[in-house]
Amino acid sequence: MDLIVNGIKEAFRLIVTLDTEVLSVTLLSLQISGSATLISLVIGVSTGTAVALSEFPGKRLVASVINTGMGLPPVVVGLFVTIFIWRNGPFGFLGILYTPAAMVLAQAIIATPIVTGISFAAIQQLPDKLRLQILSLGATRAQMVWMLMREARLPLLAAVMAGFGGVISEIGASIMVGGNIKGYTRVLTTATVMETSRGNFDVAIALGIILLMLTFAINYILTSIQQKGGR
Fold this sequence. Notes:
By secondary structure, the protein is mainly alpha-helical. It has a single domain (2-230), classed as MetI-like (MetI-like fold), CATH 1.10.3720. It is 78% helix and 0% strand. The radius of gyration is 20 Å and the shape is globular. The termini are far apart. The relative contact order is 0.17.
C-alpha cells in the first residue's frame, strides 16, 4: 500500500515540478502515438468506407480479415516490423530501426485495422436508402461519401479514440523497434517497464498515473466533441 501512496505522491511531484525527463517522455509519447493515429485515420477511414460502400466477391472474407486485424498482437507487429527494417531486411537501407519513425510505423500498423474495422461498421450500418436519396438530390459520388461520413461522425470519433488508446498504451512493438533509448525513443510505457525492472516502483507508478491522466485527457476532449455532435 505504501508503494501506491508513494507512487501517487511522486506522480504529483513530477507533474507540479515539470520534471524535464518526464515532460520529454510524455511529449514524445504524444508525438509518436498522435502521428500513428493520424496515419491510421487516413488509411483506416478511407479503406473502411470503401469496403463498406462496395460490393464485390469476397467482401465477407475482407471484412473477416479486417476484424481479425483489430486484435493484432503488438508484439507480433513489432517482430515483423523489426525484421523488415533490420539492417539486412528488405527495408534496412532506410536506417530507421531504433528511431521514433520506426515506432510511428509500428503503431500505425497496430491502429489502422482498429480504425478500419470501426469505420467499416459505422458506414455499413447506415440505411441503403440514404445513399440513394443523396444521389437523387444531384450529389456526386464523392459528395455522397462525404455526407455519409458526416452522418457516421460519432462512431468515427469512437474509431479515433480506439485507435489512439490502442497505441498510446502498447509496449511490445515500441520497445522492439524503438529500443527504449533515453532522450530519443523512450516513451511512457517503455519507461514504466524499465523503472519496474529496476525496482523503482514509486517512479513506475508515477509514470503509469501520468499515462492514465494523459489518456483520460485526450479521450475526454474527443468524447466532449462526440457528445456535442450527438446533440
